[in-house]
Amino acid sequence: MVNSVETFEKFIELKDIVVKSNGRTILNIPHAIIPADRITACIGPNGAGKTTLLKLLDGLIKPDSGTVSYSFKTKSALVLHHTPMIKASAATNLGMVRDADHSIGKDDLDRVMNQVGLSKLANSPAHKLSAGERQKLCLGRAILQRPNLVLLDEPTANLDPSTTEQVEELIRQFDQQGANVIFSSHQLAQVQRIAEHIIFIDQGEIKEKGPVGPFFADPQTQAAKRYLRQELLSD
Fold this sequence. Notes:
The structure is a single chain. With 235 residues, the chain is of the alpha/beta class. The protein contains eight helices and ten strands. It has one domain: P-loop containing nucleotide triphosphate hydrolases (Rossmann fold, 3-Layer(aba) Sandwich). The strands form two sheets. It has a seven-stranded mixed beta sheet with strand order 1-10-9-4-8-7-6, sandwiched between helices. The protein has a three-stranded antiparallel beta sheet with strand order 3-2-5, with helices on one face. Helix 3 crosses helix 4 and helix 4 runs parallel beside helix 5. It starts with a strand and ends with a helix.
């Protein structure tokens, strides 16, 4: 693995991580330090292990071996690419997080519905919302949880340019409010717009990581060079 020499105020450290599924190794990370003080993008081919890595950082799954440690007391929120909605209103779906935190009041729900631009759809059936509206609703749930670590799996996949721009602004707001954001994406232009740090993962291994600019200007591994060349050709 190629690393850029950096120091981070807050970080997540992975040691001897192995995650398996049905006998297949999904993640194999001997050692990595991931910054938790800036927006970080996790990129790589389909099936590389990006979603599994986000679930691991959230604590949703446990490694078969190895440890995940944090330099700070973490409260994470994970937004997966496909998050189901119950057959109820958008407001009711947003309010589901109150089951875990009774301090969240109706004023908080109204404020967040407005923040994500869904106030006019509060009473609309959530399962009938567009893909972009559902994604903004999921981000609203994350906002209500007041996390300091936000993990987003392909947050703008299959969204139109206008909604993509709105979601990217919400990601920036998380960062501005002091929450670290780690997101996966196949949209390299988006990564360059909003991320500061890159984790490039391939075949379950972190092959390269470091600041965004140097990674795109001069990737150090053949795997990263191949990936960037293929993805740029397909954009």
